[in-house]
Amino acid sequence: RADLRHEHRVYGVLCTLQGRHCGDKVRNIQQLSVQQREMLWQYAHEIHMNGVRHADLELRNIIVSKSGELRIIDFAFSEVGHECEGPMCRELSNFRRLLELPAGI
Fold it and tell me: Could you tell me which residue, 52 or 105, shows the higher pLDDT?
């Protein structure tokens, strides 16, 4: 688990693709198990707790690598300095509904 904050700097992991395939897009939420959907929500929650709002958490921005790892991609519209309200945060609440997860996870 990475802490993206350090001395008021934000760090991210970037991958240079150079024509390589980095994963398959999730086209339907039913492709993912409940455990995978909960894991994605946890990833988004951790990103928020580290002060970053993705601003475009949609299926088109979730990929599954060849090894089965889930990744949230495309932070082009993200915002640094987000003060998350936890479960009441609009983006997290909307993402939870997109993932078809019950309230309170």
Answer: 52
Report the distance separating Cα 57 and Cα 75, nearest Å: 9
Query: What is the C-alpha to C-alpha distance for residues 28 and 45, in angstroms, rounded to an integer?
Result: 21
For residue 13, the one-letter residue type is V
Residue 32, pLDDT > 90, answer yes
Q: Write down the pLDDT at residue 20.
A: 64
Which of 14-18, 41-45, 67-71, 90-94 has the lowest average pLDDT?
Answer: 14-18
User: For residue 26, what is the DSSP state?
Assistant: P
Integer CA distances (angstroms), 91 to 41, 48, 78, in order: 11, 9, 11
Q: pTM for the complete prediction?
A: 0.79
CA angle 98, 103, 104 (to 5 degrees): 130
Phi, psi at residue 44, to the nearest 5°?
-65, -40
Tokens of 102: 């019950």
